[in-house]
Amino acid sequence: MRDEARGSTESTESTESTVERALRESLHARDDRSLDTAASLLAADPGTDAGLARRGEEFVRTLWERGWQPADLARTVRRELAEEHLRLLGDLVRAETARYATLPRRWREQLDALTDAAGEGAGPADRFSYATAVLELYRLLVRLPRLDAVGPVPGETLPPAAVGEPRMLTRIRALLAKAEATGYPEEAEALTAKAQELMARHSLDEAGLAAGAPSPQTPGAIRVGVEPPYEQAKAILLDAVASANHCRAVWNETYGFSTVVGFEADLDPVELLYTSLLVQGTAAMTRAEAEQRKGGRKRTKSFRQSFLLAYANRLGARLEATSRRVAAEAPTLLPVLASREVAVTARTDELFPETRAARVRAMWDEDGWHHGATAAESATLTPGRTRLDKG
User: Fold this and answer.
1) Is 230 exposed, middle or buried (0-12, 13-18, 19+ CB in 10 A)?
2) Claim to verify: residue 137 and residue 218 sit in the same structural domain
Protein backbone atom coordinates (compact mmCIF):
# COMPACT_ATOMS: atom_id res chain seq x y z
CA MET A 1 0.00 0.00 0.00
CA ARG A 2 2.79 2.40 0.87
CA ASP A 3 4.47 1.72 -2.47
CA GLU A 4 1.24 2.41 -4.38
CA ALA A 5 0.67 5.67 -2.51
CA ARG A 6 4.23 6.73 -3.23
CA GLY A 7 3.80 5.93 -6.89
CA SER A 8 0.59 7.97 -7.06
CA THR A 9 2.33 10.95 -5.46
CA GLU A 10 5.26 10.71 -7.82
CA SER A 11 2.87 10.55 -10.79
CA THR A 12 1.06 13.70 -9.66
CA GLU A 13 4.33 15.52 -9.09
CA SER A 14 5.54 14.42 -12.52
CA THR A 15 2.36 15.72 -14.14
CA GLU A 16 2.63 19.04 -12.32
CA SER A 17 6.25 19.27 -13.37
CA THR A 18 5.25 18.69 -16.99
CA VAL A 19 2.68 21.48 -16.81
CA GLU A 20 5.16 23.90 -15.25
CA ARG A 21 7.88 23.03 -17.78
CA ALA A 22 5.44 23.59 -20.62
CA LEU A 23 4.34 26.95 -19.22
CA ARG A 24 7.93 28.11 -18.64
CA GLU A 25 8.79 27.11 -22.18
CA SER A 26 5.91 28.89 -23.88
CA LEU A 27 4.26 31.70 -21.91
CA HIS A 28 6.89 34.38 -22.32
CA ALA A 29 8.35 33.25 -25.63
CA ARG A 30 7.07 34.69 -28.89
CA ASP A 31 8.38 32.07 -31.31
CA ASP A 32 6.36 29.11 -32.58
CA ARG A 33 9.14 26.65 -31.83
CA SER A 34 8.81 27.18 -28.07
CA LEU A 35 5.04 26.86 -28.34
CA ASP A 36 5.33 23.60 -30.32
CA THR A 37 7.81 22.16 -27.82
CA ALA A 38 5.54 22.97 -24.88
CA ALA A 39 2.45 21.62 -26.66
CA SER A 40 4.30 18.38 -27.42
CA LEU A 41 5.16 17.94 -23.73
CA LEU A 42 1.51 18.32 -22.75
CA ALA A 43 0.18 16.17 -25.57
CA ALA A 44 2.45 13.30 -24.54
CA ASP A 45 1.10 13.28 -20.97
CA PRO A 46 -2.71 12.82 -20.75
CA GLY A 47 -2.55 13.39 -17.01
CA THR A 48 -1.73 17.09 -17.44
CA ASP A 49 -5.24 18.28 -18.32
CA ALA A 50 -6.46 18.89 -14.75
CA GLY A 51 -3.28 20.69 -13.71
CA LEU A 52 -3.32 22.78 -16.86
CA ALA A 53 -6.93 23.81 -16.17
CA ARG A 54 -6.06 24.74 -12.58
CA ARG A 55 -3.28 27.01 -13.77
CA GLY A 56 -5.66 28.64 -16.22
CA GLU A 57 -8.15 29.35 -13.44
CA GLU A 58 -5.32 30.94 -11.45
CA PHE A 59 -4.47 33.20 -14.39
CA VAL A 60 -8.11 34.25 -14.67
CA ARG A 61 -8.40 34.88 -10.91
CA THR A 62 -5.32 37.09 -11.05
CA LEU A 63 -6.91 39.11 -13.84
CA TRP A 64 -10.04 39.71 -11.74
CA GLU A 65 -7.75 41.20 -9.09
CA ARG A 66 -6.09 43.30 -11.80
CA GLY A 67 -9.36 44.95 -12.82
CA TRP A 68 -10.52 42.70 -15.67
CA GLN A 69 -14.05 41.33 -16.03
CA PRO A 70 -15.44 38.46 -18.16
CA ALA A 71 -16.64 40.75 -20.96
CA ASP A 72 -13.21 42.39 -21.18
CA LEU A 73 -11.47 39.03 -21.55
CA ALA A 74 -14.00 37.82 -24.12
CA ARG A 75 -13.59 41.00 -26.15
CA THR A 76 -9.80 40.75 -26.13
CA VAL A 77 -9.71 37.04 -26.98
CA ARG A 78 -12.15 37.59 -29.83
CA ARG A 79 -9.98 40.38 -31.23
CA GLU A 80 -6.64 38.62 -30.82
CA LEU A 81 -7.33 34.89 -31.23
CA ALA A 82 -10.04 32.57 -32.61
CA GLU A 83 -13.38 31.02 -31.70
CA GLU A 84 -11.75 27.91 -30.23
CA HIS A 85 -9.86 30.13 -27.77
CA LEU A 86 -13.11 31.88 -26.84
CA ARG A 87 -14.65 28.50 -26.00
CA LEU A 88 -11.65 27.60 -23.85
CA LEU A 89 -11.93 30.95 -22.08
CA GLY A 90 -15.61 30.32 -21.41
CA ASP A 91 -14.78 27.00 -19.76
CA LEU A 92 -12.10 28.62 -17.59
CA VAL A 93 -14.27 31.53 -16.49
CA ARG A 94 -17.24 29.32 -15.64
CA ALA A 95 -15.02 26.97 -13.61
CA GLU A 96 -13.33 29.82 -11.74
CA THR A 97 -16.50 31.74 -10.90
CA ALA A 98 -18.37 28.61 -9.77
CA ARG A 99 -16.47 28.83 -6.47
CA TYR A 100 -18.33 32.01 -5.39
CA ALA A 101 -21.67 31.90 -3.59
CA THR A 102 -22.76 35.22 -5.14
CA LEU A 103 -21.60 37.28 -8.08
CA PRO A 104 -22.21 40.92 -8.98
CA ARG A 105 -25.24 41.31 -11.25
CA ARG A 106 -23.18 42.67 -14.12
CA TRP A 107 -20.84 39.69 -13.84
CA ARG A 108 -23.75 37.26 -14.13
CA GLU A 109 -24.91 39.06 -17.27
CA GLN A 110 -21.40 38.95 -18.73
CA LEU A 111 -21.07 35.22 -17.97
CA ASP A 112 -24.36 34.55 -19.76
CA ALA A 113 -23.16 36.57 -22.76
CA LEU A 114 -19.83 34.73 -22.79
CA THR A 115 -21.61 31.37 -22.74
CA ASP A 116 -23.78 32.44 -25.68
CA ALA A 117 -20.79 33.79 -27.62
CA ALA A 118 -18.57 30.76 -27.02
CA GLY A 119 -21.29 28.25 -27.90
CA GLU A 120 -20.67 24.55 -27.99
CA GLY A 121 -18.72 23.99 -31.18
CA ALA A 122 -16.19 21.28 -31.92
CA GLY A 123 -13.04 21.09 -29.86
CA PRO A 124 -9.50 20.73 -31.24
CA ALA A 125 -8.99 17.62 -33.36
CA ASP A 126 -6.14 16.11 -31.29
CA ARG A 127 -4.22 16.58 -28.04
CA PHE A 128 -1.43 18.57 -29.68
CA SER A 129 -3.91 21.04 -31.21
CA TYR A 130 -5.74 21.30 -27.89
CA ALA A 131 -2.52 21.97 -25.97
CA THR A 132 -1.45 24.56 -28.53
CA ALA A 133 -4.75 26.44 -28.26
CA VAL A 134 -4.62 26.42 -24.45
CA LEU A 135 -1.07 27.74 -24.40
CA GLU A 136 -1.92 30.45 -26.94
CA LEU A 137 -4.78 31.55 -24.70
CA TYR A 138 -2.63 31.51 -21.55
CA ARG A 139 0.14 33.41 -23.30
CA LEU A 140 -2.35 36.19 -24.05
CA LEU A 141 -3.81 36.21 -20.53
CA VAL A 142 -0.49 36.58 -18.71
CA ARG A 143 0.48 39.57 -20.86
CA LEU A 144 -2.63 41.65 -20.16
CA PRO A 145 -1.93 44.83 -18.17
CA ARG A 146 -3.66 46.05 -15.04
CA LEU A 147 -6.91 47.96 -15.56
CA ASP A 148 -8.62 50.37 -13.20
CA ALA A 149 -11.21 48.54 -11.12
CA VAL A 150 -14.82 49.36 -12.06
CA GLY A 151 -16.79 47.36 -9.53
CA PRO A 152 -16.55 44.62 -6.92
CA VAL A 153 -14.43 41.54 -7.52
CA PRO A 154 -15.97 38.06 -6.96
CA GLY A 155 -15.69 37.14 -3.31
CA GLU A 156 -16.05 40.71 -2.04
CA THR A 157 -19.08 41.83 -0.04
CA LEU A 158 -21.59 43.19 -2.54
CA PRO A 159 -23.55 46.43 -2.08
CA PRO A 160 -27.31 46.09 -2.75
CA ALA A 161 -27.04 47.86 -6.10
CA ALA A 162 -24.61 45.22 -7.36
CA VAL A 163 -26.95 42.28 -6.69
CA GLY A 164 -30.34 42.87 -8.30
CA GLU A 165 -31.58 44.88 -11.27
CA PRO A 166 -33.65 47.97 -10.34
CA ARG A 167 -37.27 47.82 -11.47
CA MET A 168 -36.88 51.03 -13.48
CA LEU A 169 -33.99 49.52 -15.41
CA THR A 170 -36.13 46.51 -16.28
CA ARG A 171 -38.79 48.84 -17.70
CA ILE A 172 -36.23 50.80 -19.72
CA ARG A 173 -34.73 47.57 -21.08
CA ALA A 174 -38.17 46.32 -22.16
CA LEU A 175 -39.06 49.56 -23.93
CA LEU A 176 -35.78 49.69 -25.85
CA ALA A 177 -36.04 46.03 -26.83
CA LYS A 178 -39.48 46.71 -28.31
CA ALA A 179 -38.14 49.79 -30.11
CA GLU A 180 -35.42 47.70 -31.75
CA ALA A 181 -37.79 44.89 -32.69
CA THR A 182 -40.69 46.78 -34.22
CA GLY A 183 -40.92 47.26 -37.96
CA TYR A 184 -42.75 50.57 -37.61
CA PRO A 185 -40.53 53.66 -37.25
CA GLU A 186 -43.23 55.70 -35.50
CA GLU A 187 -43.65 53.02 -32.85
CA ALA A 188 -39.88 52.76 -32.35
CA GLU A 189 -39.68 56.52 -31.89
CA ALA A 190 -42.45 56.53 -29.28
CA LEU A 191 -40.90 53.64 -27.34
CA THR A 192 -37.43 55.20 -27.38
CA ALA A 193 -38.93 58.51 -26.29
CA LYS A 194 -40.61 56.87 -23.32
CA ALA A 195 -37.38 55.11 -22.33
CA GLN A 196 -35.42 58.35 -22.44
CA GLU A 197 -38.07 60.09 -20.36
CA LEU A 198 -37.88 57.34 -17.74
CA MET A 199 -34.09 57.59 -17.67
CA ALA A 200 -34.08 61.32 -17.13
CA ARG A 201 -36.71 61.27 -14.40
CA HIS A 202 -35.14 58.28 -12.66
CA SER A 203 -31.81 60.10 -12.53
CA LEU A 204 -33.53 63.16 -11.09
CA ASP A 205 -35.34 61.08 -8.47
CA GLU A 206 -32.12 59.38 -7.43
CA ALA A 207 -30.37 62.72 -7.10
CA GLY A 208 -33.15 63.93 -4.83
CA LEU A 209 -32.94 60.84 -2.65
CA ALA A 210 -29.15 61.08 -2.44
CA ALA A 211 -29.36 64.70 -1.34
CA GLY A 212 -31.12 63.63 1.86
CA ALA A 213 -29.11 60.47 2.49
CA PRO A 214 -27.00 60.29 5.68
CA SER A 215 -23.90 59.25 3.74
CA PRO A 216 -23.41 60.65 0.24
CA GLN A 217 -23.01 58.30 -2.70
CA THR A 218 -19.84 58.24 -4.73
CA PRO A 219 -19.51 57.75 -8.50
CA GLY A 220 -18.83 54.28 -9.88
CA ALA A 221 -17.90 53.04 -13.35
CA ILE A 222 -18.65 50.37 -15.94
CA ARG A 223 -16.92 49.34 -19.13
CA VAL A 224 -18.87 49.26 -22.39
CA GLY A 225 -17.59 47.46 -25.46
CA VAL A 226 -16.93 49.64 -28.51
CA GLU A 227 -16.52 47.15 -31.32
CA PRO A 228 -15.16 47.63 -34.85
CA PRO A 229 -15.91 48.64 -37.51
CA TYR A 230 -16.22 52.41 -37.19
CA GLU A 231 -15.37 52.24 -33.50
CA GLN A 232 -14.38 55.90 -33.32
CA ALA A 233 -17.85 57.01 -34.40
CA LYS A 234 -19.37 54.55 -31.93
CA ALA A 235 -17.17 55.88 -29.12
CA ILE A 236 -18.36 59.40 -29.94
CA LEU A 237 -21.98 58.22 -29.78
CA LEU A 238 -21.38 56.62 -26.37
CA ASP A 239 -19.69 59.79 -25.15
CA ALA A 240 -22.71 61.81 -26.26
CA VAL A 241 -25.16 59.50 -24.46
CA ALA A 242 -22.99 59.53 -21.32
CA SER A 243 -22.54 63.31 -21.24
CA ALA A 244 -26.27 63.93 -21.63
CA ASN A 245 -26.97 61.63 -18.69
CA HIS A 246 -24.57 63.08 -16.11
CA CYS A 247 -21.71 60.65 -16.89
CA ARG A 248 -18.29 60.77 -18.53
CA ALA A 249 -16.87 58.29 -21.04
CA VAL A 250 -13.19 57.56 -21.69
CA TRP A 251 -12.31 55.43 -24.74
CA ASN A 252 -9.60 52.76 -24.66
CA GLU A 253 -8.98 52.10 -28.34
CA THR A 254 -6.40 49.38 -27.72
CA TYR A 255 -8.75 47.07 -25.85
CA GLY A 256 -12.00 48.06 -27.53
CA PHE A 257 -14.04 49.59 -24.71
CA SER A 258 -15.01 52.87 -23.08
CA THR A 259 -15.16 53.35 -19.34
CA VAL A 260 -18.31 55.21 -18.32
CA VAL A 261 -18.02 57.01 -14.98
CA GLY A 262 -21.14 58.14 -13.13
CA PHE A 263 -23.53 57.46 -10.30
CA GLU A 264 -25.05 54.00 -10.14
CA ALA A 265 -28.54 55.10 -11.19
CA ASP A 266 -27.17 56.44 -14.49
CA LEU A 267 -24.63 53.82 -15.55
CA ASP A 268 -26.81 50.95 -16.78
CA PRO A 269 -29.33 53.23 -18.52
CA VAL A 270 -26.48 54.87 -20.43
CA GLU A 271 -25.28 51.50 -21.68
CA LEU A 272 -28.80 50.42 -22.61
CA LEU A 273 -29.61 53.62 -24.50
CA TYR A 274 -26.25 53.60 -26.32
CA THR A 275 -26.76 49.99 -27.41
CA SER A 276 -30.31 50.67 -28.57
CA LEU A 277 -29.41 53.85 -30.48
CA LEU A 278 -26.52 52.02 -32.12
CA VAL A 279 -28.87 49.24 -33.25
CA GLN A 280 -31.39 51.75 -34.54
CA GLY A 281 -28.69 53.85 -36.22
CA THR A 282 -27.18 50.83 -37.95
CA ALA A 283 -30.61 49.84 -39.25
CA ALA A 284 -31.19 53.37 -40.54
CA MET A 285 -27.76 53.33 -42.21
CA THR A 286 -28.62 50.05 -43.95
CA ARG A 287 -31.89 51.54 -45.24
CA ALA A 288 -30.06 54.64 -46.47
CA GLU A 289 -27.53 52.48 -48.30
CA ALA A 290 -30.32 50.54 -49.98
CA GLU A 291 -31.87 53.78 -51.22
CA GLN A 292 -28.52 54.97 -52.51
CA ARG A 293 -27.96 51.72 -54.38
CA LYS A 294 -31.27 52.21 -56.15
CA GLY A 295 -29.80 55.45 -57.48
CA GLY A 296 -26.78 53.60 -58.81
CA ARG A 297 -24.23 54.83 -56.30
CA LYS A 298 -21.91 52.30 -54.73
CA ARG A 299 -21.65 52.58 -50.96
CA THR A 300 -18.28 53.29 -49.41
CA LYS A 301 -16.59 53.16 -46.04
CA SER A 302 -16.57 56.97 -45.97
CA PHE A 303 -20.38 57.01 -46.33
CA ARG A 304 -20.81 54.76 -43.27
CA GLN A 305 -18.29 56.67 -41.18
CA SER A 306 -19.86 60.02 -42.04
CA PHE A 307 -23.33 58.63 -41.36
CA LEU A 308 -22.44 57.40 -37.88
CA LEU A 309 -20.49 60.55 -36.99
CA ALA A 310 -23.40 62.78 -37.99
CA TYR A 311 -25.80 60.48 -36.16
CA ALA A 312 -23.71 60.72 -32.97
CA ASN A 313 -23.21 64.48 -33.30
CA ARG A 314 -26.88 65.33 -33.76
CA LEU A 315 -28.13 62.85 -31.17
CA GLY A 316 -25.70 64.27 -28.64
CA ALA A 317 -27.18 67.74 -29.04
CA ARG A 318 -30.74 66.42 -28.79
CA LEU A 319 -30.05 64.27 -25.74
CA GLU A 320 -28.42 67.19 -23.98
CA ALA A 321 -31.44 69.39 -24.71
CA THR A 322 -33.77 66.73 -23.30
CA SER A 323 -31.65 66.39 -20.16
CA ARG A 324 -31.71 70.15 -19.56
CA ARG A 325 -35.47 70.30 -20.08
CA VAL A 326 -36.20 67.55 -17.53
CA ALA A 327 -33.76 69.04 -14.99
CA ALA A 328 -35.43 72.44 -15.32
CA GLU A 329 -38.67 70.89 -14.09
CA ALA A 330 -37.05 70.51 -10.63
CA PRO A 331 -35.05 73.74 -10.11
CA THR A 332 -34.46 72.98 -6.43
CA LEU A 333 -32.35 69.99 -7.43
CA LEU A 334 -30.06 71.90 -9.81
CA PRO A 335 -27.38 72.46 -7.11
CA VAL A 336 -27.48 68.72 -6.30
CA LEU A 337 -27.06 67.80 -9.97
CA ALA A 338 -24.19 70.26 -10.28
CA SER A 339 -22.38 68.79 -7.28
CA ARG A 340 -22.86 65.26 -8.63
CA GLU A 341 -21.37 66.26 -11.98
CA VAL A 342 -18.37 67.76 -10.16
CA ALA A 343 -17.95 64.45 -8.31
CA VAL A 344 -18.14 62.50 -11.59
CA THR A 345 -15.52 64.74 -13.18
CA ALA A 346 -13.24 64.37 -10.17
CA ARG A 347 -13.59 60.57 -10.20
CA THR A 348 -12.88 60.47 -13.93
CA ASP A 349 -9.74 62.57 -13.49
CA GLU A 350 -8.67 60.28 -10.66
CA LEU A 351 -9.10 57.14 -12.80
CA PHE A 352 -7.64 58.67 -15.97
CA PRO A 353 -5.17 61.44 -15.14
CA GLU A 354 -3.54 61.31 -18.58
CA THR A 355 -6.44 61.28 -21.03
CA ARG A 356 -6.12 63.08 -24.35
CA ALA A 357 -8.59 64.21 -26.97
CA ALA A 358 -8.92 61.81 -29.90
CA ARG A 359 -8.74 63.28 -33.38
CA VAL A 360 -11.51 62.08 -35.68
CA ARG A 361 -10.07 59.95 -38.47
CA ALA A 362 -12.64 59.72 -41.25
CA MET A 363 -13.06 60.58 -44.92
CA TRP A 364 -15.89 63.03 -45.50
CA ASP A 365 -19.00 61.93 -47.36
CA GLU A 366 -21.70 64.59 -47.67
CA ASP A 367 -24.51 62.12 -48.40
CA GLY A 368 -23.50 59.97 -45.45
CA TRP A 369 -23.48 62.98 -43.12
CA HIS A 370 -26.88 64.17 -44.36
CA HIS A 371 -28.49 60.75 -43.95
CA GLY A 372 -26.94 60.29 -40.49
CA ALA A 373 -28.22 63.64 -39.26
CA THR A 374 -31.66 62.86 -40.67
CA ALA A 375 -31.71 59.50 -38.88
CA ALA A 376 -30.79 61.24 -35.62
CA GLU A 377 -33.64 63.70 -36.10
CA SER A 378 -36.04 60.80 -36.65
CA ALA A 379 -35.11 59.13 -33.36
CA THR A 380 -37.69 61.06 -31.35
CA LEU A 381 -36.64 61.20 -27.71
CA THR A 382 -39.22 63.50 -26.17
CA PRO A 383 -42.84 62.39 -25.70
CA GLY A 384 -45.39 64.71 -27.30
CA ARG A 385 -42.93 66.16 -29.82
CA THR A 386 -42.07 64.97 -33.29
CA ARG A 387 -38.62 66.59 -33.23
CA LEU A 388 -36.51 69.12 -31.40
CA ASP A 389 -35.82 72.56 -32.80
CA LYS A 390 -32.58 72.73 -34.73
CA GLY A 391 -29.83 74.76 -33.25
Assistant:
1) buried
2) no
